[in-house]
Each structure stands twice: as structure tokens, then as C-alpha cells.
Write a structure and sequence with these properties.
Length: about 120
């Protein structure tokens, strides 16, 4: 069982930045992949970005350039740096991990972009 704990969400004005963190209960290099998804009210959960154990990164195309995923193996943590935030980025952001074909999810952290 992999435990994922997110932090860093909150309220930010349009154009602002936030960094989300996701701490895993075990070495992130043992996990096949980690990443972030988000879900807005009335919409399906969608991919934001993922990184595999060997460092391959995948972004949803329209978020490239504004969002950056990174990781720290010493802290077993994956980050999502979000810049130039827009109101449409408002959502619950979920940390995701996959290990041996099993998916794990964090509890979610709310990001609200509003003036």
C-alpha cells in the first residue's frame, strides 16, 4: 500500500503561482510512475503531468510551459510548479502513483484561482 500526502494548495490570484507537493510513503524510484491529475466541478478527472521511475515526463499539451513536474528522491516527493495560473485551473489536484499495475491516489488538495 502506497500512501500519498499532498500539500500546497490554496487561493491565488490570476497570474500567480503555486507549488504542490506530494510525499510518498516509499522510494519514488520504486514506483513505476507518479504525477498529478485534477478535477473541476462537473468535469472528469484529467491528467496534468506524470513522471516515470526512469525520468520520462508527460504533460497534457495545453498545460506545457505553465506547469512543471519535478521530483526529489531524497524526500520521496514529487512537485508541481504552477505558474501564470488562470481561473480555469481551479480544481482539486490529486497526486497519483502507480506500482505494479495498481494505482494509488492522494486525498486531493484544492487550488482556487480567483481575484
Amino acid at each position: 500500500q502506497v500512501q500519498l500526502v499532498e500539500s500546497g494548495g490554496g487561493l491565488v490570484q490570476p497570474g500567480g503561482s503555486l507549488r504542490l507537493s506530494c510525499a510518498a510513503s516509499e522510494s519514488i524510484f520504486r514506483l513505476n510512475a507518479m504525477g498529478w491529475y485534477r478535477q473541476s466541478p462537473g468535469k472528469e478527472r484529467e491528467l496534468v503531468a506524470t513522471v516515470t521511475s526512469d525520468g520520462l515526463i508527460n504533460y497534457t499539451d495545453y498545460l506545457k510551459g505553465r506547469f512543471t513536474i519535478s521530483r526529489d528522491g531524497d524526500k520521496n516527493t514529487v512537485y508541481l510548479q504552477m505558474n501564470s495560473l488562470k481561473p480555469e485551473d481551479t480544481a482539486v489536484y490529486y497526486c497519483y502513483a502507480r506500482l505494479n499495475y495498481v494505482s494509488y491516489w492522494g486525498q486531493g488538495t484544492q487550488v482556487t484561482v480567483s481575484s
